[in-house]
Amino acid sequence: MKKKSIWILPLVVVFAAGAFWTKGYYNDRYVVSDYYYTQIPEDEMNEDSWLLDSDGAKQVKGKEYELVAYNAQGEEREVYFAKTGSAEDYYAPGTYIQVSTSKTLVAGVAVVNEEDVPPAALEQIDTLGTRIQ
């Protein structure tokens, strides 16, 4: 009977460690931790294009955006997101975008009005722009 109980404690410890790691991974990757704001550059061209996979093969019609965004404190972060569809579906130049982010990913994208952008983020957008340098 004692031999069986020796294995229970290590199994519980391994299970608990795995659960702790999984929760941390999930939270870092999928739970929104901050909101960043960006603006589609005024000189952005909206022409039909394709989204490509990692091998460069065409997948679906769409456009990738690689921009600089700012949170409510004016802190900068590069964000990457895509919009599927054709040119008329892409974000219009000058559109303000709220980007929901986890620690590692963009979790969502929404169009917002200029007055919904926090003042510090709006100031950074106006001063520094949103194109990645």
Q: Strands, helices and their partners?
A:
Blueprint: H1 2-30, E1 34-39, E2 50-52, E3 58-70, E4 76-84, E5 96-101, E6 106-112, H2 119-128
Antiparallel strand pairs: 1-5, 2-3, 3-4, 5-6
Concise structural overview:
This protein is an alpha+beta fold and 133 residues long. The protein has helices at 2-30, 119-128; strands at residues 34-39, 50-52, 58-70, 76-84, 96-101, 106-112.
Please characterize this protein's 3D structure.
By secondary structure, the chain is of the alpha+beta class. It has two domains: 1-31; 32-128, OB fold (Dihydrolipoamide Acetyltransferase, E2P), CATH 2.40.50. Helix content is 29%, strand content 33%. It contains two helices and six strands. The chain has a three-stranded antiparallel beta sheet. The chain is elongated, with a radius of gyration of 21 Å. The termini are far apart.
Helix content: 25-40%
* Element pattern in H and E: HEEEEEEH
Distance between termini? Answer: 67 Å
Task: Characterize the overall form.
Answer: elongated
Identify low-pLDDT runs: none
Q: Total number of β-strand segments?
A: 6
CATH superfamily of the largest domain: Protein of unknown function DUF1093
Oligomer, anyone?
single chain
Q: What spatial order of strands do you see in the largest sheet?
A: 1-5-6
SS strand fraction:
25-35%
Total number of domains: 2
Class of secondary structure makeup: alpha+beta
Let me know the average pLDDT. 87
What CATH calls the topology of the largest domain is OB fold (Dihydrolipoamide Acetyltransferase, E2P)
Q: Treating each run of at least 4 consecutive H or I residues as one helix, how many helices?
A: 2
Q: Which CATH first-tier class of the largest domain would you pick?
A: Mainly Beta
Largest sheet: 3 strands, antiparallel
How big is the Rg? Answer: 21 Å
